[in-house]
Design brief:
The protein is α+β, with helices and mostly antiparallel strands. It is 23% helix and 34% strand. The structure holds FE2/S2 (inorganic) cluster.
Amino acid sequence: MNQSRRNFLSAACTLCAAAVLAPAALAAVNEEDDDKKPKLKVEDGKVLIPAALIAEKLNSFKVKGLPRPLLLIKNPDAYDAYLLKCTHMGVAVKIDGDELACPAHGSRFNLQGGVIKGPAKEPLTRYKVNVVTDGVEVIVA
Ligand code: FES
């Protein structure tokens, strides 16, 4: 094998490794942010979010039993909930102003879970939300 071919293969392998490892590294950073918040859990197919934790319009929670954070949107007259898992390759999606952004390959979603920009093609998973006495319950099963 000549030197230029060896250099080409070496560079190609480095690019492939970066493409494979970057989304995982970004997901780890994304989940680090969520570790600072109280952890909730799935029980009987539901996640109970106490009212005291719902301070802002956009609330992201790490939930034991869900593969990615849960987004709870507090609207004036209702709540919406989405799984912050990109529908392209499953990386955790982050809140970015009034949109949701995937750090892996640039997909963007609106606050109704719809795709604004690909490569993702499918909307985020949406969950039903019930208002209960001490907060809201999100039906995830
Ligand atoms: S995982 Fe590829 S854009 Fe989100």
